[in-house]
Amino acid sequence: MNRPIGTRRAVFVVPVAIVLIGEFITASAFALPAARKAQPWPLSIAVVGDSYTAGSQNRVVWPTLLAQRTGWSVSNFALPGAGFVADGGGGHAFTYQVDRAQGAHARIIVVVGGLADDGSADMGRVSIGAIDAINKIKVGGERALMIGPTWYETPVVASVRRVSDAVQKVAEGAGVPYLDALDPPWLTPGQMQDDLSGPTDEGQSVMADKIGAWLRAEVAG
User: Fold this and answer.
1) Which helix (H) or strand (E) holds 136?
2) Are 107 and 150 in contact (CB under 8 A)?
3) How confident is the model at residue 130 (pLDDT cuts 50, 70, 90)?
């Protein structure tokens, strides 16, 4: 006895529906990882810097605040008294910090500061130090970003301005994004420690916001 036409059609439609659903699920499974791979967030960042980044009498420093406010992975390798030439008295210039930062396997290495280099009479040495730091980062396969030294009053002292100008020239020549933190200075005297050794916690918060906004624009843009 033959089945009614309606019954035969139902038997045929169900397997087709199952196939179509299976294809949709398979396509979605491939599409989602692809979307995640294209998404640049969250960032993984390693920071190289001086005492403004390492902290001086602070409860918290800006790299920690940046991680808390963004959800990014931020590793801080800054050391007091360090610069492109200055080594903090222990051979800890920025090139040394880059070596350590590369062990964090971050996508981006941000070099911040150079304030300790303001006592150098030879900006050529500062430029060479900046070139060495950038080259190490590029050879290691990370993306380099540079932020100049910041200050807390206007006009900015000439020695600090010279460091910023030297590093900016190197960064632009190497095709590395550079953020000028002196025009105008990010901090105020009230956001500095009493001995002017570094930013207060409020000053650290200002730096976290300034740097976070710039990083978002550089990476997302």
Assistant:
1) helix 123-140
2) no
3) very high
pLDDT of residue 41: 58
**CATH number of the domain at 40-220, out of 3.20.20.300, 3.40.630.10, 2.60.120.20, 3.40.50.1110?**
3.40.50.1110
Domains of the chain: which residue ranges? 1-39, 40-220
What is the Cα–Cα distance from 43 to 22, expressed in whole angstroms? 34
Phi, psi for 76 (deg, rounded to 5)? -110, 115
Residue type at 102? Answer: Q
For residues 98 and 34, is the Cβ–Cβ distance under 8 A?
A: no
Q: Please, which contacts does 197-200 make with residues 24 or more away whose CB atoms are closer than 8 Å? A: 197/51, 197/56, 197/57, 198/51, 198/52, 198/55, 198/56, 198/57, 198/58, 199/52, 199/56, 199/58, 199/62, 200/58
Of 193, 220, 206, 205, the closest CA to residue 51 belongs to: 193
Question: How many C-alpha atoms does 98 have within 13 Å on its Cβ side?
Answer: 28
Tokens standing for residue 52: 């403004």
First to last CA, the chain: 70
pLDDT digits 0-9 by tens, 70-109: 999 999 999 999 999 999 888 999 999 999 999 999 999 9
Find out whether 149 and 85 touch, Cβ atoms under 8 Å: no
Q: What is the pLDDT of residue 13?
A: 40
